[in-house]
Amino acid sequence: MSVPHYRRCLDAAGVKPGAIQSLADIRRLPFTTKNELRDNYPYGLFAVPLERVVRIHASSGTTGKPTVVGYTKKDLRTWAELIARIVTMAGVGRGDVAQICFSYGLFTGGFGLHYGLERAGVTIVPAAAGNTERHVRLMQDFGTTVIVGTPSYALYIAEVAQRLGVDPRTLKVRVGLFGAEPWGEGMRAEIEKAWGIDAYDNYGLSEVIGPGVAGECLAKNGLHISEDHFLVEVIDPDAGDPVPPGEKGEIVFTALTKEAFPVIRYRTRDLTRLITEPCSCGRTTVRMEKVTGRTDDLLIIRGVNIFPSQIEEVLTSTPGLAPHYRIVLERKGYLDDIQVEVELASEGFTGRFEDLAALEDHIRTRLQTVITLLPKVKLLEFGSLERTSGKSKRVVDRRGEKRP
Ligand code: DLL
What we know:
alpha/beta, Rossmann fold, GMP Synthetase, Chain A, domain 3, 2 domains, nine-stranded mixed β-sheet, four-stranded antiparallel β-sheet, globular
């Protein structure tokens, strides 16, 4: 064990080499958390000398120091191979032209997808995030068939295309490979409709390898996990024990083949469940359900637990709304207040003021049946909320702010 941190943790847990004989013994190993990654900033958890590390990536996180990860040459080959699998599972390959709309940089999205698509023999347009009008022009000129990015950016590009007088459905784009943030089935339907494409989800995180941990096949019924590279567990986030098979919990990964940055039982904070029923595509790997939230996404409002994804499902299944929303939390006296702000669909609202009030009421009641609280609902004009080319931020928590 060449990483002093892991050696210390294993010693503290009383786990001696040789104690791990079977897969079940993995439960004797301590978990690794993001805090430990931060405490060992930047290179403390690397398992090989820096001279063997040929690439660094980092995830910014919202607070504190970024977490830094490293790759050897072999790790980069593995990574490209894993992403090539995901790409292939979604029916993408030679002859496709993929436009990468992720940012290239310390974030793993751009470079990760880039080398994996290349490995799969796809023609790549490395356009990167931003400069959205140019994305539309490139798609027209280069005959892009695959769009790769965050689901929220895909929606934004579609909007910009419309504004430029280009109907995205008339472009050659036929498949979307989306990931890096949660998106429910309602959001998938919106994107597929706006672009006239099939949209596939793929999942990953920097600490484990980046994108390429799991991806959807044509069945769109769970993401196949590359189990030959990652040992997967689902645990109860509070107790840390494994949940019964098929139940929802926090997904935990142990990297089996990585050289530079091998994590042991890494706690992702992502909530999902494993699907072991056979997949119609014939692949035999275990699948994970689409990630609907993170343990740290959970909003506790007046004692009620709410995940933003529950709100999203209601909004994206309500006709007349655009899939752009935010959730604003405020503290009024001792009470927390939740306001859901959502845009009206782009066709614009031609009805009367009473109709707007009725729509607000309708959304409020539908939300109440799901989240049990009666939230405030504010309808916004289409285009009023900020758009993003990266991961969207949908929750604005003002509860800690001081009032003037
Ligand atoms: O977002 C890696 C990635 C890039 C995945 C491109 C897919 C495509 P990080 O920046 O380290 O890495 O963020 C990882 O993003 O723990 C999840 O909470 C969330 N996430 C990633 N993919 C999905 C997804 C990349 N498909 C964190 N659905 C993870 C839901 C996702 N959440």
